[in-house]
Design brief:
Layout: E1 9-11, E2 16-24, H1 29-33, H2 37-43, E3 49-55, E4 60-64, E5 67-71, E6 76-82, E7 88-92, E8 96-101, H3 107-125, E9 130-141, H4 143-146, H5 153-156, H6 159-162, E10 180-186, E11 190-199, E12 211-224, H7 229-247, H8 250-255, E13 258-260
Antiparallel strand pairs: 1-13, 2-8, 2-9, 3-6, 4-5, 6-7, 7-8, 9-12, 10-11, 11-12
């Protein structure tokens, strides 16, 4: 089963490199028109570093008669609020608010970090509703870090995620590219995008080790009320937990140092 239930665990050597939660809402022009001073004051204790950057939006596809054309869009301002250690970041634009971290430990800690900024955002800007909730987990499994350099990927990752690398007559070092990319709806009105396969973090600019990337992005869309957000994020967290545990072998599971985690 793709989402078979598993016991909640915490890994001593977790492969998570980033976790991102994004909430999109109908455009609020005042966010881009004025610096978000009130919001900064509300979150400044936990996110004292601030920066604002102009970002180009992809062109919009529009119909002109029987033809289509690309219509340039105005740049938007992306406001960054960063923790003192640089490991946690809030992003705010006229279309979304997002929390990301490079130091994920457990879901309850992440949810608590999101709760106060989100509550302040809702109080200050009063979005009509949320159009999309997204929760993304990016894992990069390092054989070197785990002392598993002598193992092949098909010893550590289950067959349905390694593709041709699971075949006994395939030489792993000779394969230049092998990945799985899936987009599918899930029960309950959710959607999932998954990318899985060997790859280099940051294009290999600073880290040359090939790692196994398991990047899962879960989302819900519609006219979503603020009250519905916690339960939907909890559902997506459980999808992510079950997906990851079902993707790895017992050998990799044990190598990462699992410890039972109470609810």
């Amino acid at each position: 089963m793709l989402f078979a239930p598993y016991e909640r665990l915490q890994y001593a050597r977790s492969p998570l490199v980033e976790v991102i939660c994004q909430l999109r809402f109908p455009t609020i022009l005042s966010i881009g028109a004025n610096e978000p001073a009130a919001f900064q004051e509300a979150v400044r204790k936990d996110f004292p570093r601030y920066a604002a950057r102009q970002e180009q939006v992809p062109p919009k596809v529009v119909k002109k008669g029987n033809a289509t054309a690309l219509e340039p869009q105005k740049p938007i301002t992306n406001y960054h609020f960063v923790s003192e250690d640089g490991r946690w970041k809030l992003n705010l634009t006229q279309n979304f608010i997002a929390l990301s971290t490079l130091s994920y430990q457990r879901w309850e800690d992440f949810a608590a970090r999101l709760d106060q900024p989100l509550a302040q955002f809702i109080q200050i800007y009063q979005p009509a509703f949320f159009e999309r909730l997204g929760l993304r987990y990016v894992n990069a499994i390092s054989r070197q870090r785990l002392g598993l350099e002598d193992q092949l990927w098909d010893d550590l990752i289950r067959d349905h995620y390694v593709g041709i690398l699971g075949q006994p007559d395939v030489e792993e070092t000779e394969i230049t590219k092998c990945s799985l990319d899936v987009e599918t709806p899930l029960v309950g009105g959710y959607r999932m995008k998954v990318h899985a396969g060997p790859g280099l973090i940051g294009g290999g600019k600073t880290d040359k080790e090939v790692k196994f990337i398991l990047d899962s992005d879960f989302s819900a869309a519609g006219q979503l009320t603020a009250d519905s957000v916690p339960a939907k994020l909890e559902d997506m967290h459980r999808f992510a937990l079950c997906l990851f545990r079902g993707a790895i072998t017992d050998e990799l599971h044990q190598a990462m140092g699992p410890t039972p985690l109470s609810e």
